[in-house]
Amino acid sequence: MGKNMRDQVKEHYGEIAGKLQKGSASCCCGAGASCCTSIVNPEAFYSEDLSDLPVEAVNASLGCANPLVFAGLKEGETVLDLGSGGGIDVLAASRYVGQKGKVYGLDMTDEMLELANNNKERMGAANVEFLKGFIEEIPLPDNSVDVVMSNCVINLSVDKERVFREIFRILKPGGRLAIADILALKEVPEKVRKITEMWVSCIAGAMHINTCTKILCEIGYQKIEVEPKHYYTKEVLEHMAGNEAGISDLEWELIDKAFAGSHIKATVPVT
Ligand SMILES: C[S@@+](CC[C@H](N)C(=O)[O-])C[C@H]1O[C@@H](n2cnc3c(N)ncnc32)[C@H](O)[C@@H]1O
């Protein structure tokens, strides 16, 4: 794939954040909808009222589902959002945990962090902090967080097991993860996995659903629940891949609805 994939992902999201800052993009790479999903309008995910969030944060939504729906956040909890982008989920979560709680957003892309901090300021969210760093090396201590959320980010990592190990490390005993991410439900042609445009658009790097469950099990997570929610049709995928993808009609048939925005839930043992 040539250049280091993490650098390509960073460059991609840096450009999107730059456009969002200038107000020249309402989203990024898909067919006129969110980067990670063009199948469902992001507004459909967010059943709760977002009217008190800055419009710039809502417009920057690049997720593939809504982790807040199943995160069960409570007042006073400490929460971390991996790959926080423009900050929509962090700012929405800040209302659930209140002033006694704290929400961290972690992202590697400077332009996204700038956008997120501007949105934090617009909302006046004192219980929010955006951190710069990688989801594979989370800059927080062991056993320090009640809930780890993420929305359409882990698929972008080239070392997903390491990300889930890092989450396990920083969660407190009994802590939980609530991840919205794209998973593969079928075997996918290797050619598709090598298309950079489909990787940075959150598709090509998506783990198989069984691999996800196996990794979580092996690390020691409990109460694992993985549920596909929003399926990608071949038309949407074709739009993402662009004309140069060189994928045959048969291969398009194979990947029709092979990927889905999914809910991933698990807890770490109490002791
Ligand atoms: C598809 S966007 C999702 C943003 C946000 N979660 C949302 O729902 O709007 C992916 C975000 O993850 C960040 N990201 C991707 N890979 C990362 C990594 N390895 N470490 C830290 N951040 C990463 C990108 O910079 C980008 O802001």
How would you characterize the overall build of this protein?
The protein has 271 residues and is of the alpha/beta class. The protein has a single domain (5-267), classed as Vaccinia Virus protein VP39 (Rossmann fold, 3-Layer(aba) Sandwich). The protein has twelve helices and eight strands. The chain has helices at 5-22, 42-45, 55-59, 68-71, 88-97, 110-123, 160-170, 190-193, 196-200, 209-219, 234-241, 249-255, and strands spanning 78-82, 102-107, 128-132, 145-151, 171-184, 207-208, 222-231, 259-267. Strands 1, 2, 3, 4, 5, 6, 7 and 8 form an eight-stranded mixed beta sheet that branches. Helix 1 (5-22) packs parallel to helix 6. The termini are far apart. Bound molecules: S-adenosylmethionine. Residues 6, 9, 13, 35-36, 61-63, 83-86, 88-89, 107-109, 112, 134-136, 151-153, 156-157, 202 line the site of S-adenosylmethionine (SAM).
